[in-house]
Amino acid sequence: MASRGIRDRVAIVGMGCTPFGEHFDKSVDDLLIDAALETFASAGVAKDDVDAFWLGTMGSGYSGLTLSRPLKIDYKPVTRVENFCATGSEAFRNACYAVAAGAFDIVMAIGVEKLKDSGFSGLVGGTVAGDGTQVPLTAPAMFSLLAPAYGKKYGVSDEEMKEVLTRIAWKNHFNGARNPRAQFRREVDKETIACSPLIAGPLGIFDCSGVSDGSAAAVIVRAEDAHRYTDRPLYVKALSFAAGPAAGPIDPDYDYTTFLEVVRSAEDAYAQAGVTDPRAELAMAECHDCFTPTELVLMEDLGFTERGNAWKEVLSGSFDLDGDLPVNPDGGLKSFGHPIGASGLRMLFECWLQLRGEAPENRRIATIDAGKQLGLTHNLGGAPGECVSFVSIVGTEPAACGPARRGWDGGRARSPDVGEQRGEIAALRGQLGPTIVEPLALLGQPLHGPAAVAGDPVEQGPALEQPDLVADDVEHAASERASGGGEVGDEG
Fold this sequence. Notes:
Blueprint lengths: L9 E8 L10 H16 L8 E5 L8 H7 L6 E4 L5 H14 L5 E9 L24 H6 L1 H9 L3 H19 L13 H5 L3 E3 L2 E2 L8 E10 L11 E10 L16 H14 L4 H4 E5 L5 H10 L8 H7 L15 H5 L3 H16 L18 E10 L2 E10 L22 H15 L4 H7 L22 H17 L10
Parallel strand pairs: 2-3, 2-4, 9-10
Antiparallel strand pairs: 1-7, 1-8, 4-7, 5-6, 8-11, 10-11
Helix pairs in contact: 1-2, 3-13, 6-10, 6-11, 14-15
């Protein structure tokens, strides 16, 4: 899996997040209004300054009207998205792409979910008719399979595994106790966690994330405009999303010790951001700790430690608030619960606070003072062996080397970047004359990215002359760059 990415082309200039919890006194409208108003104030903008909105919710609304009605949006695009537990991140991803594409100057991504009013102890969502082959297991039961599988593969005894899972829950409750927006704001001792009633397999109550209501939002602009709104923007380094074939439950080779979708999306995100050693380069990570064994496996899938070593790192405190890579410094899903549409943006909100030095002192991470400037967020939706995965990377400084790398090998085929295509086009054009049709066919793909739209619309002129217009624009762009101009597509 490889993608070009939009590294440093857009930036977050304002964020807001409601407290998560049992908001029986608030409606979906109230939560959206609270998050949006805080975000507008953070970015120093008014509602009418925003060109378009992306709303993430799984079951708290079914169209853009879910947001336009309470905010009284004046006839602007509002796109409602859903992608399992990555719904909030999906709203953010699409909003970023819209700005990077030049379609809008300033947009909002906002997520919301109100679960407590449903009376259902779990996530909401309609049941889709199937063929009867779906495994009828609860979420705790499905994720409980990770723990014994991991222990068997890497020689971790049941007693050691219990200690590891207990420490993950203890860590996240420790962090959440220092966060006024968390649902659960008390430390829980290890004995209480270890002796809690069992829910499924080895998982007890404290191994499972809670159910809550909440909303969070972000305002996104072009990177070159970011300092018009704040002197401390967060630049988007990578956005990666992967959906797999969902064959794990029927694949005899799947061993329940990894999420392949996470591995692929993480590899892609690191390639987009230019990260080669995530453990050394990241200041923090917010990961999808829906259950304690999920966080354990994610430490390896996200490349934070070697295979079979995460359990030792957990026990040593590597991922604690004062560890060398703090994971879930805000308390994670374990302390916040999981209002589906809001969780991904809530994770970004913690990056917003920590990387900008605005987190409260009692949970401020030391890796920022050590000079690290990157934060990672991760969402997972579905179940082991059949899930979707999102990974983002954000940072406080734009890369000195400029926009994103235009391709990477990662053990798979590498896409040629625009510069390579320019050289090949020039060489082939010299052989074949003015037409560019044959060179593009020999390259095996059309010209990618901003250079393809650098000049006048290709609708002008006869059909056979359109490729010449594209080629001329590429040559013009190369000339501009050689004379000191920016790379095509740097603006917008």
